[in-house]
Amino acid sequence: MSTEEKAAAAASAANGNGNGNGNGTAAQGLSIVARTQGQLVRRRFFRHRGAMISLTILVLVILLAYTSIGFAGIPGWWIWNYYTPGKVVNRGAPTLSLWPTFLGGDGFAIGEHPFGQDDLGRDYFALTMRGAQISILIAFVVGIVGTLIGVIIGALAGYYRGWVESGLMRFTDVMITIPILVIAAVLGQKFGGAGPLVLAIVIGLVLWTGLARLIRGEFLSLREKEFVEAARALGAKPTRIIFRHILPNTVGVITVAATLLIANAILLETALSFLGFGVRAPDTSLGLLVSTYQNAFATRPWLFWWPGLFIITIALTVNFIGDGLRDAFDPRQNRVRA
Amino acid sequence: MAPFIIRRLFISFFVLLGATFIVYVLVASAGDPRNALLESTDPGKANKIAAMTRNLSLDVPIIPRYFAWLGGALGCLIGKCDLGNTASGAPVSGGLAVAMGSTLRLVVFALVIAIVVGVSIGMITALRQYSGLDYSVTFLAFLFFSLPVFWIAVLMKQFLAIKFNDWLKAPSIPPWVIVVTAVVAGLIAAGVVGGDRRRRLAAFGGASVAVALLMIYFAVTDWFAEPRIGPVAMIAMSAITAVAATALFAGFRSRIVLYATLVTAVVGVICYFALDSILADPTTLLVVGLLVLALIVGAGIGAAMGGLYRSQAVKACMLTAFGCGGLIFASQLLAALPAYSAKVNGVVVATIGATTPNFSGNFWETTLDQLGHLLLPTIAIVLISIAAYTRYTRSSMLEVMNADYIRTARAKGLTERTVVVRHGFRNALIPITTIVALDVGGLIGGAIITETVFGWSGMGKYFNDALKIPDPNAVMGFFLVTGTAIVLFNMIADITYGFLDPRIRLS
Amino acid sequence: MNRTRAVGLTALAAAAALVLAACGGSSDTSSSTTAATSASSAGGGGGGAASVGSGTPGTSGDTITYAQEQEWYDYNPSSTSGSATANQVVVNQVLRGFSYVDNNAVLQRDTEFGTFEKTSDNPLTVKYTFDDKAVWSDGTPIGCADFLLSWAANSGRYNKDGTVNQPNATPANPSYMFDAASTAGLSQTQKPTCADGDKSVTLVYDTPFVDWQAALLTSVGGNLLPAHVAAKAAGTDTAGFVKAVETDDAATMTKIADFWNSGWTLDKAKGLPDASVIPSAGPYYVAAWDPGQSVTLKKNDKWWGTPAKTDTIVIRYISQDQQVSALQSGEVDVIEPQPNPDTNSALAALGDSVKADFGALYTWEHLDLSVKNGFANEKLREAMFKCAPRQQIVDNLIVPSNPDAQLLNSLNTMNFQPGYEAAAAASGFGAYAEPDIEGAKAAYAASGEAPGKAIRIIHVDPNPRRTNEVALIKANCDQAGFNIQDVPLATGPYGAARSAGDYDAALFAWAGSGLNGATPTLYLSTGGSNTAGWNDPDIDAALNQLSVSTNPDEVPALLTKVDQAMAKNFYSYPIFAFPGVVAYKNNIDGPVLNTTQTQATWNMQDWVRTG
Fold first, then answer.
1. Which residue intervals of C128-266 are DSSP H helices?
2. CA distance to partner chain B, nearest, from residue C316 (Å)
């Protein structure tokens, strides 16, 4: 189902709910251009300044991370890779200089190692980019896995109710109580650092609980609506009702929850790495870099600040995008900041 | 309600039971704790391995071992707890109790602050949606949310503790600090007040001048070398408290409430002078007792003077009394600061631990010692959890303020204050209570990283240490507490939700 | 907290004040004056808050604060569970004994505590004499009973079922009454006989024992414990206990053993045991314990030797990562952080306000080649030795943490121990400091193995340093023809793989104690820790002679023989000793880096604040 269709369905839902600014009424006004709910959402989103700036920055960061050192065998444009040790020059201090000469600086120069070098003389820009790749990968895989499971469980529980609901929700309750560290620790022991993808999937397998409860709540109220009643009366099968009629109406909630999930995943990965349960050397992640060099804060600040800067940038932009989406999907939200 | 609670309790018990099984099996299969001994040249290696095997019953297969553990744990229901021993042979329950006390001290304080600050900021940003203030607060909230705790910790230790303590030894306020603080205060005030340009400009000017004057006063009188709340400041701040309490609960349309709160404030100021000797070295009981007394007196004044606005007056006066009590408390604390600082060699803001070892002093000094140790970890926890509260409150408030009944309220001519406080705020708080309840459940698990970096041996650190071994008995002890808390508060969240929102039926 | 009583009294006064205030209606000012006078008289101190400063000292004054990562949990450092660095750090100067291992891993006699001498070599006989003035801090004299308790506990003589073993006759599945950390040495002795109150005891060995001078020590220290406390807990007295040992009275011994095993184990919920249970026999006694936070040691007035220089030592529990900032903020005076380039720079940045003592620890990194797996072929092992970039590993990975770090050229003698120079020169490891790729290629070719043989180097993960070491080894040895594979394993799988010998090469470290009793198990062909399948008659002969050597002067030569055989057979090479550091405020004198496991508090009685 394309975004357009979803949005259209969402629009019909808005009418069905009776609490939207029904675009039908809007179309009757003479000077007002008729807009579908999807157009409204997009319009509101595109006009959300914070979200748009964030989206741009996030795309740039992703492009930078994946093109610079290459990914999955495809070479990148950056001269160093992240694993070959080299000779440590000047304690590995960064050669990047942005301070113009007329202000007493060295002028703009990238130099050999713009972000500096680590203990073994590896290029820190390459390492940071690798870390960003892994962190982004983890974040999005967690987002996808968590959302998928959360939506399915929430939808089934909310639609079928009865024993399906109580079974699934009690299962969710069990999952909520299990500390994620326990699962990460088991994973670390069993798979000995099975790689970021496995880690991401496992985090995703744990983080869906909040989303499932949210979706269940939405389903509980939507399944009683007239349009669902109508669909049922027309003989639609449950799968069709769930996926074609109810789910599109929850797309706003899902999108927002998913972006927050992604932002959380980045921070969770950082925390896990700090505690020694996350990504393991020789591979790296932003969280691992920051926690490895947390004591370098005063002495070799670049080892700490660069990855930290990328963590914050990614988490911040994802959060802002989520915020923009929330505002955009809220049908009651009629103020749009130009 | 009762059948609902009983059924929920029943189900929760089985949820917990299932979870303990899963966690036990996971931890037990996470690794063999004896492996850590393999790199030792200790001639007693074999004995140690045997002892650990005995302590953790490692010779028993996992499933029977779980049921043996469960047998002991179920004893807790009849008051005969046996949570087994840790890998080193100490009883699990002892370490757990200490860790729990430590975590509760740390977390409760931080949670209260985070909720109060987060909810107020969320409210303000919702009322000033898409303003510069809204954007800045959103940005900062997300920024703090995105910062790894250990990073904030490193920065705070350096600047809020070490550098601040050094500064406090010879406090002097450079002019640029005054300028920057004044401008920031002005900007915040302008953002909060909102409205048209003139109004905002006035707010900016007023706030920045006031703050600048205050800072200059501090600088000139060397206030930080011997901080205190003097009589003039006490009178002024009590009056402000009275006015603010009136504004919050009743508005100024009816002067009678204002008079009541002002009378309360006057009583507060009298107490400020009168209680000096009784508060020289009070006990905790005395302080709490005085606070209760203050609230009773406040309520009495409100009831006596409130007239038609009795209920509002009682609330406003109680808040005023509470505020005045807080001011007296703060003034005594500040007065004890120089003596305390001398005792701890100038380490007023501590970077590590829960107390200064073997510290002895009067009530105010011990309180300062605890506050000094709580400060940094509390800020760390508040900064990261404030984001969630701000965002939730903001969106919940926005939703409510767009609701039909708010339009109705406005239409019937209620003042904006009444609309916001009585109709908007109260309804916006309903979903917040759920989130708070869930958070409390989660927070008992401790803040692993915060505890580690600030040297609080709380639940988080306990859990992390146990998991590294991995020691199933210790982890299960932790899990039993946190799991129960999560399940219980989950239930409480559902019940309060149903209680607060009559649209929801508990069935 | 000495506030408790005052608090109680003030609470009473406060309650009275509240009642008065409640009854007196609005005039709460008059009644509160009465309460104020009673409150201040109960507190004992006069005046307001401002005048308190000069009274009881907070942390200032004669107190030195030391930061340690792991919290103690047992007062008995000789029991299986209590034998750990965390406990030894606290009791180092609380419980003492006849001998100790100093900071350079050299065994020293503690002549303040008592003296001992070897009176015969055949059979090995040692006579111990307690100092005349030796008393526990509760006033009970230290003597025969305390020695007997140590012997009974650490000799493995008493079985749970009440039977008694003979010297050197260890049962197949021992189930001793006492959970002793180690029974080495004392298990070879005859039961000593003495009367309660005797100040001297004679110990007779059935077979010679190399560490006879440290017979009462475990690898992390270990000390004499108060027999009168254990006896009292068992419902008897020291005389009764001495009698029980003499008659092998199983019932009494079981009670004593139960207390010895767990009576000194600490429970965080209960806090520090009663002072009568934990008397001291050293310069300090344990005065307070705030679980999770700190332990306070105070000067023991009953100590008969050189008095401690500082009244109070506070041990605060702070994770190593946070210790430098705690030192900087002034909350602790002495720290032992994990040395790394950043810790070093951070300490250096504190300038003159802090002194730091860098050095090596008695924990040595080495690469074991398994003759059971990939390295059965001696020529392959030779190639592996020749391509090893040992000096480079030290220069790149260790020198930044310890500026004085050296390449380690002996497996059995550390470079801070006396006699290292001779041992290193004779061992033969010096020839493999720099990689000799050509030589390695030649040896590889001579092995007849096809190029590109896969070699699995296992090590514990996560450990970035070992990952880096393997990277450097791979960079060199792959040139010689190997295909080095880095196999990082989590603790569990690693332990299993190493004890099963399932590796081609293992990169890890042993932690030493300065005693020689444990050396044989590492290299003996039948040694429990030798999982690489080494089997060399020279090594076995030297080690068998070592275990029964009672003359300390013979030991270095035997250890050198082992080193030489390990190098000649290309079994294992040492790389470096772990770096360590102790840092302290510049107004503190006394702390030195302790290379062994007992940490900096080993000489805390000498710490003193100078300004």
1. 144-154, 227-233, 238-247, 250-258
2. 8
Residue A1 in this model has a pLDDT that exceeds 60 = no
Q: Are B49 and B58 in contact (CB under 8 A)?
A: no
Contacts of C490 in chain A (CB under 8 A): 188-189, 192-193
Q: Please confirm whether the linkage preceding A301 is cis (ω < 30° from 0).
A: no
Q: How many helices (H) and strands (E) does chain C have?
A: 18, 17
Token pair belonging to B19: 């979870």
> What confidence score (pLDDT) does residue A338 get?
33
ipTM of the complex: 0.84
> Please, are residues C602 and C107 in contact by the beta-carbon 8 Å criterion?
no
Res. C403: pLDDT tops 60: yes
pLDDT above 90 (res C534): yes
What mean pLDDT comes out for the span B478-499? Answer: 83
Q: Which residues contact C167 (CB under 8 A, 6 or more apart)?
A: C187, C188, C189, C190, C206
- List the beta bridge partners of residue C574: C366
Please name which of C6, C36, C7 lies closest in space to residue C21, comparing C-alpha atoms.
C36
HSE (side-chain half, CA atoms, 13 Å) at B377: 33
Q: List, as ranges, residues 192-221 from A with C-beta within 8 Å of C.
A: 192-193
Residue recorded with tokens 């997300």 = B142
Which residues in chain A are closer than 8 Å to C341, comparing Cβ atoms? 119, 296, 299-300
In order, the DSSP letters of B173-223 are --HHHHHHHHHHHHHHHHHHH-SSHHHHHHHHHHHHHHHHHHHHHHHHHTG
Tokens of C145: 């009973």
Amino acid, res. C71: E
Report which secondary-structure segment, H or E, holds C203.
strand C200-204
Smallest CA-to-CA distance from B467 within B28, B18, B5 is with B28
C294-299 vs C284-290, strand pairing mode: antiparallel
Q: Name the minimum distance, in Å, from the CA of A193 to any CA of chain C.
A: 8
Q: What mean pLDDT do residues C179-190 have?
A: 85
What torsion, rounded to 10 degrees, do the Cα atoms B348, B354, B357, B360 define? 70
- The length of chain C in residues reads 611
Can you read off the two tokens belonging to residue C553?
């002067």
Mutation target among A119, A186, A272, A277 for the C interface, most CBs of C within 10 A: A119
**Count of CB atoms within 10 A of residue B273's CB?**
11
Cis peptide before C339 (omega within 30 of 0): no
Yes or no: say if B43 and C186 are a contact pair by the CB < 8 Å rule.
no
Q: Which amino acid is at A29?
A: G
| Cis ω before A114 (30° cut-off from 0) | no
Query: Which pTM was predicted?
Result: 0.83
Q: Using H for helix, E for strand and C for coil, what is the string for A250-262?
A: HHHHHHHHHHHHH
Rounded Cα distance, C532 and C175, in Å: 30
Q: What is d(CA C458, CA C466) in angstroms, rounded to the nearest whole number? A: 10
Residue found under tokens 């500064």: B167
Query: What whole-number distance in Å separates Cα of residue B223 and Cα of residue C395?
Result: 54
Cβ distance C145 to C228 under 8 Å? yes
- How many Å lie between the alpha carbon of A227 and the closest alpha carbon of chain B? 22
8 A C-beta contact, residue C143 and residue C163: no
Structure tokens at C132: 């005349």
Contact A279, A131 (CB under 8 A): no
Q: Is B134 helix (H, G, I), strand (E, B) or coil?
A: helix
Q: Do the bridges between strand C505-511 and strand C453-460 make them parallel or antiparallel, or are there none, so unpaired? A: parallel
Alpha-helix residue ranges (DSSP H) falling in B222-254: 231-249
CA distances to B339, C18, C316 from C333, rounded to whole Å, are 22, 45, 10
Does a cis peptide bond (omega within 30 degrees of 0) precede residue B502?
no
Report how far apart the first and last C-alpha atoms of chain C are (Å, whole number): 28
Whether the per-residue pLDDT at C35 is higher than 50: the answer is no
